[in-house]
Amino acid sequence: MAALDILRAGGNAADAAIVASAVLCITEPPMTGIGGDCFALIGQADGTVTGLNGSGRASRHATAEWLKASGLTEIATDSIHAVTVPGAVDGWAALLAKHGKLTLGDVLQPAIRLARDGCPTGPRTARDWAGLVDFIAQDEGGRMHYLPGGKAPVPGQVMKYPALARTLEIIGEKGRDGFYTGEVAEDIVNTLKAKGSLIDMEDLAATKSSWVAPVSTVFRGREILEIPPNGSGLTALVALNILERFELEKYAAESVERRHLETEAIRLAWVIRNRHIADPDFAPVPVEELLSDAMADKLAAQVSMDKAIPEPEQVVPLPGSDTVYLSVVDENRMAVSFINSIYHGFGSGVVTPATGIIFQDRGAGFVAKPGHPNCIGPSKRPLHTIIPAMVRQNGKVIQSFGVMGGAYQPMGHVAVMVNRFVYGMDPQEALDFARSFHEDGVLGVEQGVPEAVAEGLRKLGHTVERREDPYGGGQVIAIDPDTGVLCAGSEPRKDGLALGY
Questions:
Q1: Whole-structure pTM value
Q2: In terms of DSSP H, where are the helices of 307-460?
Q3: What phi, psi does 415 have (nearest 5°)?
Q4: Active-site entry in 121, 207, 323, 355
């Protein structure tokens, strides 16, 4: 509603996206916050699409010598070195400066009011929060700001965040420098340094978002666009390229064959993800080769309709993953596909006592293996799971969408694209459809997947388990290229909805 109010008042999709993102930082703190990162795709009425990478970096002190001396063999999610410099606020400022009509101070007002005056806790948010009490309680700032009376809030309980309200006011008054320099930055550095972080004031001040060209592939006559590495949208594109080699239309939307093919495609694409996706400023990512017809043909040839691939790592040729998502389309048909995240529930679990900022744990996306393209390094961005997306047809943007949910996100994009463009589902049907996802050797299936399909997948050699929790959550806005009419769908697995005026 805050975003809709901005649109009604003359703001555009970029303004509304930042309004909504800032509000979600208050209403869904386990999922997102100003201590996180963001990515966006911005589509114009003429079909032009640009990307914004608002992901933060490791400290410039994270050198190879430091890594060797640290003895780290991985960057665990609970390590202080999993905290990277938050990139979201700079990303918000960059998006507004290039595409918005309003100032940061204007668009932060609804979030400031909610943080100061209080907002009720949604049911899904309360459920997630309750499972994270022991984690948050380990940190002084976490206990202070996010565990009233030592407990998680129940659904409907009004929560106030006066420290965060003041922080947002400072950002509104001073712009991005209000976060990356001055008193807020000092509180950030002091909090992190006390726990052994390498991040200092210079690391914060140097933070700068990047404008990037999307990467894309063609699936069923539509161009699917994703953020390039260090985002993992490439994973979804590789999987879609594999699926383009199969006649999915021969099989029912809910069938053993459809789920088997999607599973095998994402398993093969996952090997590509783990080998290659990294910060392209530090390690070349062979995007063109990975998305080539030759690579798709080689990967698709590994897929059998009779049995699951035992070890996909062995058959992929060498060439020469908690979040909120939102989508906005305005009256001029600017579309903004936007995602903001602190990664795992309550991120790193570290919260600044004075300013109420929850830090992400995106550094857990790094590896600690020297020589690997995604090894932690000075001022380097880690592999990211969060991926906004768009669809273009005949040169026009026809859909802005995203599916949140950690590592599930590339699979979510694949499933929604197949639902939309193979099986003809509308946006809401495409999101409602039961989900499955292969991870750590297990093919998890939601409760809505029929037992006959689950059993059929077992017979093909998949280790299938029923999921109690749902996979991910997404939003879709489709734009009719002929009439301009919008059709939106919002995820039933999350506290979300579709709104228009």
A1: 0.92
A2: 312-315, 409-421, 427-432, 451-459
A3: -65, -40
A4: 323
pLDDT of 83? 96
pLDDT tens for each residue of 225-281? 999 999 889 999 999 999 999 999 999 999 999 999 999 999 999 888 888 888 888
Distance CA 12, CA 102 (A): 9
Nearest to 92 by CA among 141, 43, 21, 174: 21
Q: What integer pLDDT is reported at residue 320 of this predicted model?
A: 40
The encoded tokens of residue 81 equal 């070195």
Whether 323 sits among the annotated catalytic residues: the reply is yes
Q: At what angle do helices 233-243 and 409-421 cross, to 10 degrees?
A: 40
Ordered alpha helix ranges (H), 148-213 = 162-174, 177-180, 182-193, 201-205
pLDDT attached to residue 43: 97
Distances (CA, A) of 421 to 42, 344, 399: 22, 31, 12
H/E stretch holding 258 reads helix 256-276
What per-residue confidence (pLDDT) applies to 313?
66
Instruction: Please give the Cα distance from 115 to 117 (Å, whole number).
Output: 6
Asked if 369 and 320 count as a contact pair (C-beta separation under 8 A), the reply is no
